Amino acid sequence: MILQRKQLGEIIKLEYGKPLPESERKFEGQYPVYGANGIKSHSDVSYVNHRSIIVGRKGSAGELNLTEEKFWPLDVTYFVTFDEKKYDLGFLYRLLTSLNLPKLAKGVKPGLNRNDVYSISVKIPELIAEQKRIAQVIDAADALCQKRRQAIALLDDYLKSVLLEMFEKSNYPTLALESLALEGRGTFSNGPFGSDLLCAELVKDGVPVVYIRDIRNGSYEWKSDVYVTTEKAQHLSACQIKKGDLLITKVGDPPGICAVYPNDELAIMTQDVIRLRTTDIVNNVYLQHWLNSSLGKHVLKGIIIQGTRMRFSLKSFKKLKVPVPPIEHQDKFATIVDQVENVKKHMLTQSEELENQFQALMQKAFKGDI
């Protein structure tokens, strides 16, 4: 296989998208209308009448979308043109994907300068047949990764359906969340006010500090890498988190995401995190999944305050009423969750291995090693 070293500007051109009047945009139109990060609407008029790649120019700068149909690219995008006799669209899409174009974005509202893209030096097979072969190999590997991700998503959907089947239509008694908390100071509270935990008191090692960004998609995944000293954690004893505590975000889009804290080590929560330590009439795994479900979100809507950031108060959250089934029913659901999570953990490991292999394949592909 003969590889040519070229700058991207010799291979592709990034043409500017064009504004589309609101009157031309439709929910159901013949052609997709692309913004910087994907389809925004549809229209019965098209601006580009050939296959292409849409590249985010402003906002989600550098994001890529491949289209095989006529489309309208908005003015926050570029679209790719090239010589179809020399280059394969699928190969160019994979090549651009491998270059991580978002890293080239600059400015407060990130923007992508096409001259920065043009200056990138790449290796490309001289024969279009080789380009197509490489694209097909990458597509097949990517399809395997996507199937694994879809299978993991199906497990989450399964748990949602189990919860609804077990608890949606049953006439269980409803109790205010505050009645489910253990007696004692600080069993149902949020983190310290700003003056009680200053940025200057954060350190690089010690007791972990938990922010709302660590509670995502119904699970706890600590990413903050921020600590306080043991002495400070003792001073903030009312804000400590222990294994099994239920953590809830009271700010966000949307607020109210819940997760059970899984670790043995103590942690400290910040002001926008609520901690609920419950009595033995409720299983926190059940309560976590109920609050994260469509049922819980519907109830939460009644206490959410709209603003720059959606939020609710601790006081209103304490008054929120939830169904409390017999504990054996909750425990049964928690057992199902545990079984599914074990399967999911195994599948996530496999998925990570596939993703690593896929990235390695991408690196080889654009070095001419496949």
Question: Would you mind describing this structure in some detail?
Answer:
The protein starts with a strand and ends in a 5-residue tail after the last helix. The longest helix has 40 residues, at 128-167. A hairpin with an 8-residue loop joins strand 17 (246-249) and strand 18. Strands 2-8-5-6 form a four-stranded antiparallel sheet, covered by helices on one side. A four-stranded antiparallel sheet has the order 11-20-17-18, with helices on one face. A four-stranded mixed sheet has the order 15-12-19-16. The chain has helices at 89-98, 114-118, 128-167, 230-235, 284-292, 294-300, 314-319, 327-365, and strands at 3-7, 12-16, 31-35, 38-43, 52-56, 64-67, 72-73, 77-82, 121-125, 174-176, 188-190, 207-210, 215-216, 219-220, 227-228, 240-241, 246-249, 258-260, 267-269, 273-276, 321-323. The chain is an alpha+beta fold and 370 residues long. The chain has eight helices and 21 strands. Helix 5 (284-292) packs across helix 6 (294-300). The chain folds into three domains: 3-126, DNA methylase specificity domains (Adenine-n6-DNA-methyltransferase TaqI, Chain A, domain 2, Alpha-Beta Complex); 127-154 and 325-370; 173-324, DNA methylase specificity domains (Adenine-n6-DNA-methyltransferase TaqI, Chain A, domain 2).
